[in-house]
């Protein structure tokens, strides 16, 4: 029987540990504040932002919500970020992505000071991770590491294969697995003989962005499979990049969707907010 990795439970444990830390800070008169900026009202973004605010409330972090109209100019957004950079009572700044097309996302991310970059998207944060220095780490990949560690899955010496090379998941995931002494391969849309590569994996991380794309033909028997995807299937049910029903009896451990990686992203964001107090 495969272990179904319970991201909901593990994320709850992390949030409870953070709540405890925050209450100690509070008793010392220290308040942690996260500024959350959303431009426009993309429904998916509104759900994510709402969940982030709820998590802040649970843990005891103050959240400042900035809900800006779709027509906000790049200059207006940059001015707000610069103002929040300077505010001593703001520890973390999060700009929900995607932004409207008329705003340069890279420029916005680069304008957040690295000390408040709780998403870990700033080039300085990414660069620090790549050379093993301290800095904020992108939340989804650090959540994957926590899922593995807290499920007792050893990374050291293992063949770790990542499908997907995005800046916010695939690439930071590779550096984190490397930091844990895994042997790391990144596959992407131009990889030849994808199945041949993925079947080498002891730990397969799937962030490909295609619903139920990975079936058991891509997986070595007994491998650990982490599914970063989230989609709606033909019946409007949530599903991942992995065909769960096809693979569950073939693997030693797997994350479900929903209830796997998803809840970990917010838990790790909260972790970064608590860490931000030390920067
Ligand atoms: N949009 C989708 N995921 C994320 C995330 O982790 N952070 C931000 N800021 N925007 C997102």
Task: Describe this entry's structure for a reader.
The chain is α/β, with parallel strands linked by helices and 279 residues long. The protein is built from 10 helices and 11 strands. Helix 6 packs across helix 7 and helix 6 (139-150) crosses helix 10 (262-276). The chain binds guanine. Guanine is lined by residues 94-97, 119, 139, 265. Residues 5-119 form the Tetrahydrofolate dehydrogenase/cyclohydrolase catalytic domain.
Stretches with pLDDT under 50, minimum 5 residues: none
Question: What fraction of the residues are assigned to beta strands by DSSP?
Answer: 15-25%
Structural class: alpha/beta
Question: Could you describe the largest sheet, including whether it forms a barrel?
Answer: 6 strands, parallel
Architecture of the largest domain in CATH?
3-Layer(aba) Sandwich
Count helical runs.
10
Strand tally is 11
Give the full name of the CATH homologous superfamily of the largest domain: NAD(P)-binding Rossmann-like Domain
Average pLDDT figure: 97
Kindly report how far apart the N and C termini lie: 44 Å
InterPro entries: Aminoacid_DH-like_N_sf, NAD(P)-bd_dom_sf, THF_DH/CycHdrlase, THF_DH/CycHdrlase_cat_dom, THF_DH/CycHdrlase_CS, THF_DH/CycHdrlase_NAD-bd_dom
Subunit structure: Homodimer.
Catalytic activity: (6R)-5,10-methylene-5,6,7,8-tetrahydrofolate + NADP(+) = (6R)-5,10-methenyltetrahydrofolate + NADPH; (6R)-5,10-methenyltetrahydrofolate + H2O = (6R)-10-formyltetrahydrofolate + H(+)
Function: Catalyzes the oxidation of 5,10-methylenetetrahydrofolate to 5,10-methenyltetrahydrofolate and then the hydrolysis of 5,10-methenyltetrahydrofolate to 10-formyltetrahydrofolate.
């Amino acid at each position: 029987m495969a272990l179904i990795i319970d991201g909901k439970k593990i994320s709850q444990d992390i949030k409870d540990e953070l709540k405890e830390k925050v209450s100690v800070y509070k008793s010392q008169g220290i308040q942690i504040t996260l500024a959350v900026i959303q431009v426009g009202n993309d429904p998916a973004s509104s759900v994510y932002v709402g969940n982030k605010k709820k998590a802040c409330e649970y843990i005891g972090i103050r959240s400042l919500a900035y809900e800006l109209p779709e027509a906000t100019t790049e200059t207006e957004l940059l001015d707000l970020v610069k103002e929040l950079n300077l505010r001593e009572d703001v520890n973390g700044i999060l700009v929900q992505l995607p932004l409207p097309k008329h705003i340069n996302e890279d420029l916005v991310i680069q304008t957040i000071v690295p000390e408040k970059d709780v998403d870990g998207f700033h080039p300085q944060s990414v660069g620090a991770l790549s050379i093993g220095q301290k800095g904020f780490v992108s939340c989804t990949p650090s959540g994957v590491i926590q899922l593995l560690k807290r499920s007792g899955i050893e990374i050291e010496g293992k063949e770790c294969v990542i499908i997907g090379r995005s800046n916010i998941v695939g690439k930071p995931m590779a550096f984190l697995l490397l930091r844990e002494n895994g042997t790391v391969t990144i596959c992407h849309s131009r990889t030849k003989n994808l199945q041949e590569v993925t079947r080498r994996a002891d730990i397969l991380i799937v962030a490909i962005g295609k619903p139920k794309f990975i079936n058991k033909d891509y997986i070595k028997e007994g491998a650990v499979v982490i599914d970063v995807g989230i989609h709606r299937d033909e019946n409007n049910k949530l599903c991942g990049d992995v065909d769960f029903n096809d693979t569950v009896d073939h693997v030693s451990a797997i994350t479900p969707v929903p209830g796997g990686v998803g809840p970990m992203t917010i838990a790790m964001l909260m972790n970064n907010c608590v860490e931000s107090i030390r920067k």
